[in-house]
Predict the 3D structure of the following.
Amino acid sequence: MMASRALALAAMENGLSVRTSEVIGMAQREGAVTSHVRMGHDLSGAIIPDREADFLLGLELSETVRALPKLKPEGSVIAATSTIIPVSVHLGLAEYNQEALMDYLKKYTGKLSFLALDDLVRRAGHPKTGNVVMLGALATFPGLPFSREQLLTSLLKYVPEKLKAINIRAFEIGCKTMEGA
Amino acid sequence: MSARKLLMGNEAIAYGAAEAGVKVACAYPGTPSSEVLETLAALSGAKGFYAEWSVNEKVALETAIGASYAGLRALAAMKQVGLNVAADPLMSLAYIGVDGGLVLVVADDPGPHSSQTEQDTRKFARFAKLPVLDPATPEEAFEMTGYAFELSESLGLPVILRPTTRTCHACQDIDLSRAVRPPHRQHSHFEKGSDKVIFPSLSARRHPWLNERQEIAGEKFEDSVFNNLIIAHNSKLGIIACGTGYNYVREALQLTGINASVLKIGTPYPLPGKPVLELFNHAERILVVEEQEPVVEEQVISLAWRNKSSAVICGKHDRLVPREGELNVDQVKSIISKFSFGEAVADNNKATQPPVLPLRTPVLCAGCPHRASFYIFKKAARGTDAVFSGDIGCYTLGAMPPLNAMDACLCMGASITIASGLYRAEPHRRQVAFLGDSTFFHTGVPGLINAVYNQADITLVILDNSTTAMTGYQPHPGTGRTAMGTSAKKIELAGLIKACGVEMVREVDPYDLQEAGKAASEAMNYPGPAVVIMKRICVNLAKKGLSSQINPEKCVDCGSCIEEFGCPAIGRKNGRPEILKNCTGCGVCAQICPAGAIEEVVKEDYES
Ligand code: SF4
Ligand code: SF4
């Protein structure tokens, strides 16, 4: 939610209109949560139609695959290799095949980057910085309607003072990992 | 830089109301409406108005009515099923009318995402004979809120603003300078007289007045900025789209390149005739796109019939537009193609079949005290065939496997009363009712009094986590805090329950399986109504710091912690049970483990 608002704010700074859609309610109890962010001129609703998204940032592997129909054929995916195994799997009511999911992503997405998000978050020093690492990674892509600094500045508006340093670090880790440094 | 602010739909409604000089705002939380009052409460100090979490929606609306009677602008907010609770004052208020502008925000939830029903408040508005506004976007919701106060005052009626989930929880950049300002007169004084005392004779006199208001409201809406007709001169097709449906139509037309005249409707009831008749003049075939019930469609059909228009009207009656669930752009694209070409355009871009994706249904949080409460009662009820009636809240998730601890759940407060009815049908079967603290205050108390008065032999379990967790941790009368952040008298559950006449009341900690288990068995065996208060703060509000670990040397892999308890922080690694990093250290699984393999450790929470 913070990540989607930060993206929206950065786009607004550059004179674009924005729409985001957040998921609130029962789904927040260990369910899958998806946010849509749209920016541009002459926007309609907040929900992105199928095959219209430019970027897909996935913090959990199976949920990334679930959201894939939203992506444009030429769109980019940044996918965490992290998995959150739902209780249904522990109870034997469902299955979770990490390898098959990764293979599927490799096969059907043109521009794909995998991030070992669990490790990166550990390096950032706070368990809840996964989304910030993701934003850092996204910020390295060309053609975004805002600069890296603008995105970071927008993000920090949503972060309490004492967590700023950690978030800056997480953002930079995201950038550097994408740039292969 | 412009003066545009990024706001969620519900925040936008709150800003709209605050700018319009609302003086009293009341609500009971319910997804997707809760952020309206949360935001109002946050703004109340700076703007100088009053905001409260009321114990239920009826109370919220009636409190707002009182303020309006004294001439102030007032607002009540709720979700669609909350309006059922508030239906009684609303239906009568339509006959009496208001003084200060009164806006009722009712959030609908097509899907449904977080609700028991997909009921359409626009239809409710029509039933209550009240005008309703249907915003397509957060910005429109902002503008409509201010307008709704003015409309309410000019008609003398309460006005319903009905956003849906996609407007409530969408964010948009909003121009706050276009707010409606407060009225000149903002003094409060209740004028004594007889026009506020409802008697059959008064209602009979007021009913023609109320009916006449319908026509006046329809006329006012003829030139409303929230309705907009764009004629496509080289097309004989017309589309009427209401609320969020308009966004989908707009984008679907852009994506398909189909050309049609479009009438956007933001005031679905009473539907203004003029723009619809104008569209009849340009379009031979008209498609009505709206979510949920055919509220606009039926009025359009009736207008066409009355005006002898030959336009063919398509929509829900011919099953082109679904009447259930939410719409989206992709669906509307195919509806519009079918409408214009007689068939949906083949989609040859079908995505490839992904590997099987794991089911990810919501479950109770790791360390949730409710899980322990259900586990305790399941054990206490072993071998008894007891029926577990549940209620509305996070704990409805007790129905999920592996707990499967809920046999019935209907609406707010119904656990107690349904258990009482089941008891009448099967007096020898044990009946256990579960509900949360906030739900107990909401509508549980009358049911409990009824059970005592009529001697229903039920066991009531109050899952007291000192908050309204499901909707975002709002305070309630048992918490000692108000919406505006001041402290309040804390209403003690045990005292209240005893005052209701219950003789057996126990308050226990669900994290203590042994003690709580004893209380559970005692309550279930007690002749007559008995209450167990399971008291433990919601794990998301509790301080963390501990965590548990499974000692692989001691673990005998019996699977109890996974298959009977089902905490999402316990998984399997290489087939063996393992505790994951989302463990909150509640220590309950350690009490379940027969091998004593689960140990407490201090959580390594990285460096911070
Ligand atoms: S202590 Fe056990 S039951 Fe409690 S949260 Fe951790 S794993 Fe779950
Ligand atoms: S939010 Fe609180 S009450 Fe709701 S499931 Fe989580 S721990 Fe339980």
Observations:
- The first strand of chain A starts at residue 17 and ends at 21.
- Chain A touches chain B through 60 residues (CB under 8 Å).
- Chain A has one domain: 50-179.
